[in-house]
């Protein structure tokens, strides 16, 4: 039972911090005024997609924590969380599309690194990161497109 308390803690912390960061750094008028590519999704899609992805990230983090708290996988998991939570303030609050692009590229590389490192040790944790990698790859393209258009 204690094991699942750890899972609950990972889910609550990951989703909770994600929601807090998103709430504090809303897109607002500045974002609405930017030129966006035709493939830009509607704003309402981001909250549900990120909510699901944060749960997947949390489960993968918990599995990695249970397997090796001080290993490379856990270090990559922590690094990607930090980068993930930094992106919104850089993009939406600081209005630094260029710096946000650098952050998201490093984030994507870190996510891929986590998948590679965990693939043999815990395939389930690696697979849980695949939708996240796909979404961040799309977000990277979107960030780059917005930077080029503005």
UniProtKB/TrEMBL annotation:
It comes from the Bacteria. The keyword Transmembrane applies. Gene3D superfamilies: TspO/MBR protein. InterPro entries: TspO/MBR-related_sf, TspO_MBR. The keyword DNA repair does not apply. Coiled coil: none annotated. It is found in: Membrane. GO terms for biological process: tetrapyrrole metabolic process. GO terms for cellular component: membrane. Its main location: membrane. The chain crosses the membrane at residues 44-62, 74-93, 99-119, 126-149. It is a multi-pass membrane protein. Keywords: Membrane, Transmembrane, Transmembrane helix. Belongs to the TspO/BZRP family. This is Tryptophan-rich sensory protein. It comes from Bradyrhizobium zhengyangense.
